[in-house]
Every structure is written in structure tokens, then in C-alpha cells.
Design goal:
alpha+beta, globular, 144 residues, 6-stranded antiparallel sheet, 4 helices
């Protein structure tokens, strides 16, 4: 079964629970294909293709712990502080994974991350995705 993903932007969350449409939903409830046709919410420009992204994540084994982390982010906490508190992996530098090229990450993680608009740790735009490693909350700091 394809992973379920949630996209959060400006405290609005859209959930994709349909089995027939497994694409992450944008904050307006449209699929990424709809937003590409109409442009993204940041000035009406679609994301340019990237060969690498600078990303951070919070990895949790349990859904409930991931939900606690998401709640803190929605309350305005900085992404790197929440990652230090909740993440269960070895990315101890605020969840930083550094620059990763296409093909270097888990396929579900990579798809969600490359579709995400860059943001800052103080005001993160993030996506939630489940992989074989657990539940991830992902943000992207840069694209190239």
C-alpha cells in the first residue's frame, strides 16, 4: 500500500486517506498535479526541478510521538528544536540530513521532500510521510 502523506503549511493540514489517490495533498486540498497547473501558493510559480535538496526531518517510530511533534510545530516551535526533542534517529543536528541528491533517500521520503517548497526552521512548511523506517516530518531548506 502506498504511504499516506500530510502536507502542512501555515497551520492548515490536508490529509490524503484515499487508497485510489495516494499523492500528498497541498494545503488547499488539491493534489500536486492541480497545484502545478495553477502554480504554487508562493507567488504563483511552480517549483523548479531540483537535482539536490537540503532537508531536515523528525523520525518517530510511533504515530503518537510524531503527532506530538507536529502539534509543537503548529504551536510555533522551531523545527530544529522539535527535531532534537522528538527525533529517534542519529540526525542530532536539529534533524539535518544535509544536501541529498535524487536517489539517495527512501523513495517515499524523496518524493514527498522534492515536492515540498523550501522554508526556514523558524517558519517551516513540512510534510508528513510514513516509510519503512517510521513516521517522518520533513522540511526542505534549499533546492539546487
Amino acid at each position: 500500500m502506498p504511504p499516506k502523506a500530510k502536507v502542512n503549511k501555515d497551520s492548515k493540514t490536508s490529509t490524503n486517506d484515499s487508497k485510489k489517490d495516494s499523492k500528498p495533498k497541498a494545503s488547499g486540498g488539491k493534489s500536486k498535479n492541480d497545484s502545478a497547473a495553477e502554480g504554487s501558493s508562493s507567488g504563483g510559480k511552480a517549483l523548479k526541478p531540483a537535482t539536490a535538496i537540503n532537508s531536515r526531518h523528525i523520525l518517530c517510530e510511533k504515530h503518537s510521538k510524531k503527532e506530538e511533534a507536529v502539534t509543537k510545530l503548529k504551536e510555533g516551535a522551531k523545527f530544529d528544536d522539535v527535531a532534537r526533542e522528538f527525533s529517534e534517529d542519529k540526525a542530532r543536528q536539529g534533524g539535518s540530513l544535509g544536501w541529498k541528491t535524487r536517489g539517495a533517500l527512501d523513495a517515499a521520503f524523496e518524493k514527498a521532500a522534492y515536492d515540498l517548497e523550501p522554508s526556514t526552521t523558524a517558519s517551516p512548511k513540512f510534510v508528513e510521510v510514513k516509510t519503512g523506517h517510521g513516521y517522518h516530518v520533513i522540511m526542505v531548506e534549499g533546492r539546487r
